Amino acid sequence: MHLDHHETFPERHTYSAAATRPDGTRRALRIGLGGPVGTGKTATVAALCRALRDELSLAVVTNDIYTREDAEFLLREAVLPAERISAVETGACPHTAIRDDISANLEAVEDLEDTVGPLDLILVESGGDNLTATFSKGLVDFQIFVIDVAGGDDIPRKGGPGVTTADLLVINKTDLAPYVGVDLAGMARDAKAQRGELPVAFTALKTENGVRPVSEWVRARLADWTAGPA
Ligand SMILES: Nc1nc2c(ncn2[C@@H]2O[C@H](COP(=O)(O)OP(=O)(O)OP(=O)(O)O)[C@@H](O)[C@H]2O)c(=O)[nH]1
Ligand SMILES: [Mg+2]
């Protein structure tokens, strides 16, 4: 049977989490990264940490299905000190932990704020999932959906809530386009048709500054966040 979670939990987590902590100070901005398996979510998180860690106080929560693989990669790469990286093991359904029962992720986010805060930004990486996976607004303020050109140039056309509604769509691994016969201009047109004015960033994370379109977008969201009411 197909379980429609929106039907099952019609009223849950459709609101945004309060912008302040109990002591009245502004909490960290929370940005979620979701998308199919292997598209470059962890690579994006790693590159964002390297690009932003000197100017911002950062932390990361990773979600893996059965392991702590992504957190261990970030630790090996030393993108942040170990105490700023927290791993959630989600079990079978990665999307459940970011959308329906977000308690383990909320706990991880709040623990990070308590132990290494005050933080400016927390990145929450979802386990690799499918085109329907989206984050609860009770967990993150903005979501980035990461797809890649190796998955085929028909993915933007196929749509789904990640592609159509994410605050930023990242189309990664553009360096592979010539090898997989993908037309980037066509992908850009299809993404625009699905998303209207919502932004799309093409990235090649193996190249120097390859994450720049994403880090610029994150900086802009953070500027709005800190300018808003505390
Ligand atoms: N050629 C190329 N490879 C990339 C790029 N970005 C990431 N990769 C590689 O793609 C593979 C998967 O990247 P990850 O960042 O682990 O992908 P992920 O989305 O976090 O994967 P899961 O968490 O397992 O769903 C790794 O081998 C990366 O080195 C890119 O821009 N170009
Ligand atoms: Mg990953």
From TrEMBL:
Subcellular location: Cytoplasm
Annotated residues for binding of GTP: 35-42
Keywords: Chaperone, Cytoplasm, GTP-binding, Nickel insertion, Nucleotide-binding
Keyword GTP-binding part of the UniProt annotation: yes
Chief localisation class: cytoplasm
PANTHER family, sorted: UREASE ACCESSORY PROTEIN G (PTHR31715:SF0)
Family: Belongs to the SIMIBI class G3E GTPase family. UreG subfamily.
HAMAP family per UniProt: UreG
Described purpose of this protein according to its UniProt entry: Facilitates the functional incorporation of the urease nickel metallocenter. This process requires GTP hydrolysis, probably effectuated by UreG.
Protein name per Swiss-Prot or TrEMBL: Urease accessory protein UreG
Native organism: Streptomyces bugieae
This protein's encoding gene: ureG
